[in-house]
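Render this sequence as a predicted structure.
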Amino acid sequence: MNMQLWNPFQDFENMLERYSKSGLSNIGKQLSTEMSFADWSPSVDIEEEEDKYVIKADLPGVEKEDIEVKLENNVLSIRGEKKTEKETGKGTKRHRTERFHGTFARSFTLPETVKADEVDASYKDGVLLLTIPKEEESKPKSIDIKVS
């Protein structure tokens, strides 16, 4: 028999993820103050390398001009809007709309050890790429103690 460490918070996160992927995501928005003003929330990947953090956000169909990235008090915010497509022509009936549109927002608290003034942002093929360099950490200094 294998023993596994139980993480009760993981069960809660899994439930919220299933909720956000279902058509009932509007109900889940009430759980987050960040989402109270946003219509949807983009998916992100966050990676840490030795000298930087890399954040990739999926923003398909969003124009570069409609994206705002802000870093303030070590909180990185990504906000913007995906505009609704106009009707294609007179007499056209829309039977289903599943793609997200409207305002979006995500915020992340970053460690104190980032170089806030050197954040690099690029946008290509619907993916926002943020590179956030780390400060060089001071290494612990060893002090020899002399015994008299």
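Summary. The helical segments are 8-21, 25-28. The radius of gyration is 21 Å.
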